[in-house]
Design a protein that fits this description.
Blueprint: E1 2-6, E2 17-26, E3 40-48, E4 55-60, H1 65-75, E5 81-83
Parallel strand pairs: 2-5
Antiparallel strand pairs: 1-4, 2-3, 3-4
Length: about 90
C-alpha cells in the first residue's frame, strides 16, 4: 500500500541509463531499544544517470514485483537500460 509519494522529478519519464533501488529507513524511539514495525519505511527510488535533476522516490512497504515493476514501467521510457542490485523482484524486467 502506497502511503505517500515524494516526487522530485522534472521530466515526464526517465530515460537512458536508470538506476533502481530500495532502502529501509528505521527510527529508534529516543535512539535506544528495538525498532518498532510502525517506525520502519521502505523507500523505492529511481534515478537517471548523468542527470542530477531526474529522480523519483516513493514510500512503499510492498517490495514485490507486483508493485515495483508497474512503477518502473510507468516511470522509465522503453528502451532504457536499468541498473539494479539484483533484488528478485526485478528478475522479470527485460
Amino acid at each position: 500500500m502506497i502511503r505517500r509519494t515524494l516526487n522530485w522529478i522534472d521530466v515526464s519519464m526517465l530515460e537512458g541509463e536508470v538506476e533502481v533501488d530500495e532502502s529501509l529507513f528505521a527510527r529508534h524511539k529516543y535512539h535506544v531499544g528495538r525498532v518498532r514495525k510502525t517506525m520502519k519505511r521502505w523507500v523505492f527510488g529511481l534515478r537517471q544517470r548523468n542527470s542530477n535533476r531526474a529522480r523519483f522516490f516513493i514510500v512503499n512497504n510492498d517490495r514485490s514485483h507486483h508493485t515495483l515493476i508497474p512503477l518502473i514501467l510507468q516511470c522509465v521510457r522503453p528502451g532504457s537500460t536499468i541498473y539494479s542490485d539484483g533484488w528478485a523482484a526485478y528478475n522479470s524486467l527485460t
